[in-house]
Each structure stands twice: as structure tokens, then as C-alpha cells.
Amino acid sequence: MTAAFVYEFRMQARKRSMWIANGVIVALLGLLTANLLTDALDEPSAKVAMTSGAFLVNLILPVVYGCFLADRLVRDDKLGVAPILDATPASTAGRLSGKYLGSCAAAAVPLAIIYFGFAVLYAATAGHPVALAWAAALFAVVILPAVLFVGAFALVVPLLIPAPLFRVLFVGYWFWGNSIHPTLMPTLSQSLISPIGPYPLQELFGYGGPGGDVVLAGPVDDATLNFLRPAATAATAWLSIGVLLAVAALVLSAAPALRARTTR
Amino acid sequence: MRPTDLWRYEVRRAGWAALLTPPVATAALLLLALLDGGDDTDRTLLAALEMVLPLAAGVGAASLVGRDPAVELQLTVPTSYRSTLLRRLAVTLGWAALLAVLVAGILLATGGMPQERGALSGQLVWLAPTVWLGGLGFLAGAAFRSPAAAGGLVTTWWIVQQVFPGLLQGRDWSRTLYLFETTRGAVPEGWAANRLTLVATALVLAGLGWALLGRAERLLREEAE
Fold it and tell me: What sections of the protein cross the membrane (chain A) (predicted)?
């Protein structure tokens, strides 16, 4: 597992196109949101500034790494190396977990650079070094569960459908399942299994949207699927993280059976 | 080999996987609308026309470069490889366009098309974002030589415009590049300028992609996986 982890991580982290694409996207977003960035740097509370940053990172960037991770597992079959790897003494489960954690870790590196870069900039300009501690906590509790959740689907679903179709459906799901207000249509947003992390953002970090007055999590009047939106408390925030990780593990556990079905 | 043979071959080569993306993505949106009670089918179809079909076409266009196992061979045949890729782009966009004309026809027949759009100008609802995302995908594919990176750029541009419509609509110059001006536009009188700017800039994007593909040595350089 360790070898698979290290190799997968290096393979993905050395992919030049990943860095260029992330760079282009960050430059484009920076250009369009330059005034928002200066507002964020003027924010007096380090906690609010870091939480808003984590919310934005989790809202947009999963689309990027979801697309990148979509070809990781099917690639072995495409290159014809899957049967050779199967013949090695390494266990299937070990190789799969190594590949999963390695590619997720590599996907988290650009996120960490972008997010901690913002944290360092804020800490330096606003004179609040505590921002770095908030950033570390938010990265672990809000950003990483999203990476693991998206990573599991991005690795496994392309075993069933072609990667380009997965990318289209995934970005559609991301908009529908995270950004649409629950009163507009049945959606998973604001629920326990929303990977942008509305429960932890609101309950553990007190985030209330850009104006501070938005309810991100919990039951919504006249909305369907409210059984997935229990009252928002610190306990349900931790439960939400647990549910996201459990769903990721469940999806990943389906991979060996699906691979056996598709490998010819 | 007659030119029609090349076209027929490219359509067959695209395969069911590529042909499935636009209809499946549209069907997913319709299914969601049905779950919601299905009382506003026209609005859903209009959203499919301006948002879903162009996205599928854009990701399809982003997946053209970097998938041929023997580019070296492709570069030695009399038909230039970039012409082959352009033909594949035409097949990808053409299939999405066929479906879009069908959806637009249904909307025109049921009166679901916005009143100020006629049978002809109504086609710009899908044509402008489709060619723009197609052009962006083609250019990104040529630049990155990786469907994952190019697809990531197309999908991110799409979601940014969905989640933050104000970012582009806030300024006069960037409003002309907003993809969803029909369904979510804030300035109705700027619609025609927006559509024409999108089509014109799409041609520039595709042209840049074409120019990049002319440097054959870039295609041979291995993309680190």
C-alpha cells in the first residue's frame, strides 16, 4: 500500500498539466475576484476570513480535482498493465487504498498551496498569525473530507461510465447538490452528505455566508429530503464528516467487483 | 479514400461513449425536473439547451487530444493530424448541435422559447455557448494534451459562471462573455451583442488551438501521467 501511495502521489504531482491547469484557473479567478480578495484581506476576524476562504475553495476547486482524478483507476486497464499488477504479491485492497490515498494527497497539494498561500498573505497583511491555525483546522475538517469524498467517486464511477461523461455529470451534480437552495427543487445541498461541508462550516466555525446571516445547514421549511438535514449542532457536524467518509469508503469498496466486471 | 469515408469513420470512431454524453446529461436534468413535479418543463428544456448541451460539447471537445495511442503514425499519413482532430471536433459539436436543434424545435413548438427569440435567433441560445465551450475545450486540449486538465478547465469555467453569475455580469466587457445570458442574463438588451461576441471569440479560441496543433513536436512530447 505504501509503495502504491508513494508512486501514485509522485505520478500525479509530477503531471505538468495539473499545475498549469490549476495555475490558469487560479489566475482567472484572481482576475475576476480581485476586489473580493482585497475585501477578504481587510476582514478584521481571522476566523471569518479563513472560513470564507475554505468555503470558496470547497465550492469551486473540487470540480478541478474531480476531473483530474477521473482517469486514475481506469488508466491501468487502458494501458494494459492491470493484469500485470494483479499478478504481483501486493494485495488488491492495499493497491487500491494506496492509489486512492496517493492520488487524493496529490490533488490536495495545489489546494493546500492556494489555501495556505491565502492564509499566509492574510496573516502577514492583517497581523493575525492565528489565521494559520484556523486554516490548518479548516483544511483538516472541511477541505480534506471533501477531497476524500470526491476522490472515491472520481476513481470508481469511471469504471461504469466513460470519464468525459463522468466529468459532465459530476459538475452538474456539484452545482445541483451544493449550490441550489433546497426550496427550489429536491437537492442534497445543506444536508449531511453535502461535501462542501455546510454542517462543520456553520457549527464548528460559525460561518454564515458572506454577510454572516445565511443559514447553511439544518432543516429547511417546505423542502424535500429534510430527513437528511437534522438540526445543526456540533454533534451533527461531526456526524456529517463521518457520513462523508463512510460513503467514500463504501463507494471505494465497490471498486474491486466493478473492476472484475470490466477487465477483459 | 473519399472524404465522406473519413467522416463516416470519425463518426464510428467516436463510439457510443462520446455520443452518449449529451443525451444522458440532458436526461439527467429532465429526470431532476420530473422529481420536482415536472410543472415547468419549458424552463428545464431551456436550461438543457443553454447550459447542459454546451457543457457536454465542451468536455467532448476537451477530450480529443491525448487519446491516440500512436500519434507518430497519425503524423506520417497524408491527412494532417490537426485536420483529423478538427473533423473530430466537428463530429462532437455536430452531434450536440443536432440534439440542440431538436430541443429548440420542441421549445418553439410549445411556446417555451422566450418570446423575443424567433426560429432563427432562437438557435443562438445554444449555438453561442456550445461553440464557446467547444473552442475553449479544443484550445485547452491542444495546450495541455490531457483530457483531464482540459476537461477540468471547461467544467470550472462552467461552474464559476453558474455559482457566481455576478462576477461576469458585473462589468460591461465581461458581460459579453457570460454563457447563460438567455436563462440568467441581467441585461436583456445586451443579448445579441453577448451571443455574437461569444461566437466570434469561440472562433479565436479554436483558431489558437489549430495553430498550437500545427507544432507537431509538441504532440509527440510525452505527457507525464
Answer: 19-37, 49-70, 100-124, 130-150, 157-176, 235-258
- CB neighbour burial string for A136-173, b if at least 16 within 10 angstroms, e if fewer: ebbbebbbbbbbbbbbbbbbbbbbeebbbbbbbbbbbb
Q: Which residues contact A139 (CB under 8 A, 6 or more apart)?
A: A54, A111, A112, A115, A116
> How many domains is chain A built from?
1
Tell me whether residues B159 and A25 touch, CB distance under 8 A: no
CA distance to partner chain A, nearest, from residue B115 (Å):
24
DSSP-derived letter for residue A231 is: P
Residue A18 confidence (pLDDT): 86
Q: How many CB atoms lie within 10 A of CB A34?
A: 10
Q: Which residues of A touch B150 (CB under 8 A)?
A: 21
Contact B25 A172 (CB under 8 A): yes
- Residue A230 structural domain: 2-262
What is the nearest CA distance from B34 to chain A, expressed in angstroms?
Answer: 10
Alpha helices in A33-179 (DSSP H): 34-42, 46-69, 72-78, 82-86, 92-126, 130-138, 144-156, 163-179
| CB A168 within 8 Å of CB B25 | yes
Interchain CB distance below 8 Å, B18 and A162: yes
Residues 6 or more apart whose CB falls under 8 angstroms from that of B186 comprise B165, B169, B175
pLDDT tens, position by position, for chain B (225 residues)? Answer: 677 888 888 888 777 777 889 999 999 988 888 887 767 788 889 999 999 999 999 999 999 887 777 788 888 888 888 888 999 999 999 999 999 999 999 999 998 888 888 888 899 999 999 999 999 999 999 999 889 999 999 999 999 999 988 888 888 888 899 999 999 887 888 899 999 999 999 999 999 999 999 887 777 765 544
CB A109 within 8 A of CB A13: yes
Which residues of chain B are within 8 Å of residue A185 when distances are taken between CB atoms?
A: 32-33, 35-36
Tell me the ipTM for this assembly.
0.92
- Interface check A68 vs B, CB under 8 A: yes
Distance from CA of A118 to the nearest CA of B (A): 19
Domain ranges of chain B: 3-220
A32 within 8 A of B174, measured Cβ to Cβ? yes
> What parts of chain A have a pLDDT lower than 70?
262-264
Residue type, B77: V
Mean pLDDT over each residue of chain A, to the nearest integer: 90
